[in-house]
Amino acid sequence: MPTLHISHPAFSGHKREETVHFYRDILGMPVVLLQDNLDVPAEDHFFFDAGGDTFIAYFLPKEGAAPGHSGPARSGWGWMDHLALDVEAASLEGTRQRLVAEGVEVDGPIDRGYERSIYFRDPNGVTVELLAWLTPVPAGLRQADVIRKAQELRESRGSRLVEDEDVRAAIAALRA
After folding, report:
1. Average of pLDDT values for 52-61?
2. Which of 22, 40, 48, 122 has a C-alpha 20 to 30 A away from that of 129?
3. Rounded to whole angstroms, how far apart are CA atoms 29 and 32?
């Protein structure tokens, strides 16, 4: 069965107002769905628009309800390590500055070979990565195809990591 794309990761949180402020106001993801959590009556189900028909879902306590039973998010086996979101390179530094101004601790930007990333935690402890490709994938090409071809080129070079040169060469090869 071929999949289309990831619809949404779904998180459980305990900081309702802080979470809504963080995703909607700081990261600029509008709330496109807010309804009852059909499985837990004391929670609401939020969908934040992450762009490209993808969403971040959050189950958060209803206004005035006590927080749920779970603790802050953590990385490790059996847990999600982080949520990565593609952003345009031109917005990465401005977003980093906005996060810092809001009192959010930010790591980066970090060089990841063909991309630059910043990392931070949301109000519920989920690690979020914002990443910007150094050479954006042009319209008409799929990221998966570019990454697959860049991986082949990296292996043929004998390199440990995919670099921007591999991405540029992959794009050229796919357009040929």
Report:
1. 89
2. 40
3. 9
Any residues with CB less than 8 A from the CB of 119 and at least 6 apart, and which? Answer: 82, 106, 107, 108, 110, 127, 128, 129
**Tokens read off for 89:** 């390179």
Crossing angle for the helix pair 143-157 and 164-175, to the nearest 10 degrees: 120
Token pair, residue 137, equals: 């994938």
**Pick from 1-5, 19-23, 48-52, 57-61: least confident:** 1-5
Backbone angles phi, psi at 20, to 5 degrees: -65, -45
Contacts of 105 (CB under 8 A, 6+ apart): 120, 121
What is 82-95 written as a DSSP string?
-EEEE--HHHHHHH
- Mean pLDDT check: name the lowest of 69-78, 99-108, 132-141: 69-78
Contact criterion met (CB below 8 Å) for 118 and 108:
yes
Q: How many other β-carbons are positioned within 10 Å of the β-carbon of residue 133?
A: 18
SS3 59: strand
Which residue spans within the chain are E strands per DSSP? Answer: 10-12, 31-36, 43-51, 54-61, 83-86, 107-111, 115-121, 127-133
Spatial CB neighbours of 27, under 8 Å, sequence gap ≥ 6: 95
